[in-house]
Amino acid sequence: MADYTLLVEFVTTAGCEQRFLSLVEECARYSVESEPDCLRFDVIQDDELNTRVLLYEVFSDKSAFEVHRQLPHVFAFWAAAKDIIVSREVRQLSRTASYGRAS
């Protein structure tokens, strides 16, 4: 599998969790709907620390991700969310296998 896969962990300002989720879910939905090379974009909130949100993003390759980063809906997300993000950590992953059922 040659996908370009990322795991992004955000910590948001307390009290802004729902606002952040709305912003990131809109960006994720638009990315999957409008970018043919955005294969998956999951938004996952930590059950114990609801200020922690993880993104699991899969693109066809690294160049597709680089295109994604330059699109207007991504710039709009950053502009709207930048003041409520406490921290962000990005990890590039190599998927070696995939099991399960589509959700």
What does this structure look like?
- A hairpin with a 6-residue loop joins strand 2 (38-45) and strand 3.
- This protein has one domain: Alpha-Beta Plaits (2-Layer Sandwich).
- It is α+β, with helices and mostly antiparallel strands.
- Helix 1 (17-34) packs antiparallel against helix 3 (72-81).
- The chain is globular.
- The model has no long low-confidence stretch (mean pLDDT 95).
- A four-stranded antiparallel β-sheet has the order 2-3-1-4.
- The chain contains three helices and four strands.
Determine Rg (CA atoms, Å). Answer: 14 Å
Helix content: 25-40%
Q: Shape from CA axes? A: globular
Number of domains: 1
- CATH fold group: Alpha-Beta Plaits
Low-confidence stretches: none
Largest sheet: 4 strands, antiparallel
Q: State the end-to-end distance.
A: 20 Å
Which quaternary structure do these chains form? single chain
> If strands are numbered along the chain, what order do they take across the biggest sheet?
2-3-1-4
The counted number of beta strands is 4
Concise account of the structure shown:
With 103 residues, this protein is α+β, with helices and mostly antiparallel strands. It has one domain (4-93): Alpha-Beta Plaits, CATH 3.30.70.
